[in-house]
Amino acid sequence: MGSVNLQYVSSWPDRHGKLRTYFRIRGKRYAMSNPDSPTFSEEYQEMLARHAPAAAIKRQGRGSDPIEKTLEWVILRYKEKSAQWARAADSTKEMYNRRFDWLRARYGAADFGSFTEKGVRKIRNKLRDRPSVADATVDMIGRLWLFSKEHLEMDDLGPNPAAEVASIHTEHEPAPAWPEELCKKFEALTSRPRLRRAYYLLRYTGQRRSDVVKMHRKQYDGTAIEVVQQKTGTYVWVPAHKLLREHLAETGIEGDYLLSSSRGGKFRATSITNMICDQCTEFGFPGYSPHGLRHLAGAALAESGATIEQIMSILGHLTEDEAREYVKQARRKVMAADGMRLWEKAANDR
User: Fold this and answer.
1) This prediction's pTM
2) Class assignment of domain 180-334?
3) Which of 108, 183, 195, 285 could form a disulfide linkage to 72, CB 3.0–4.6 angstroms apart?
4) Mean predicted lDDT score pLDDT of the chain
């Protein structure tokens, strides 16, 4: 991109044909990177803040609406018009807002159309020490780009600059499924009934901690639990496993929730995580978390012969990928066992 239409910015080629860009105000000029530089947006923001603070406030939308087609403007329009934003759970919006705030603070004044693949890669690299955050930020830029073309009549936008920016978080390690020894320790934990209840709900429904803490007693009819998953908004009807039914019948339900705090209200999801992780460490199993029980449930379903569709129906997966992985792992175990039996039989036949 050779030049950009921004207040106080001028660009022209010098006598050698090299593009020069300056921030010009009150008879003075300050050299800047060219508009196609990944650092241009930040430099422009800094120049505005230093030499024209009133314009910076206006541009960032703190004094009035931000300038049309800037990143700040696109983000505001996304929140106003996007069906995806409207459907998102509060926890998802909170996560998105953290990404938006980071982007707005650094690039809010930039013309959104000036974003390039090289520039997005630079943004990703600024967050390299937090791979999942870096990848989420790139994903958010990509979403905003698609939204702008589809719903903001920004038809002049070119190819999505985030489309071919590689993910940093490629070596994601899923939460490990719990070993049987650890499960038995929690099942015998009668001295901590609420922690034991959390274990039974997590293991035998396969739901996320954020959904387990919201399970109201009215959603359990003695045979199944109705759940609307917080992460995806998916409705799931979960038949209660025999061992879970027996546990609930034996210990009873106090308060309005299947898992109630000492005051009768619902737990916070983070409290459940901290309690369980601390107890796992105390038992000599550091590194295990509530999400490992969801993986354990998926593996148990697959090993029992459940189909991909059945696993998805219980766990609430929106795509087949994760459910298929459980089935694949279960088949590997069966094939490995069959293979070992053949090996042993061949040895005995000699």
Assistant:
1) 0.54
2) mainly alpha
3) 108
4) 85
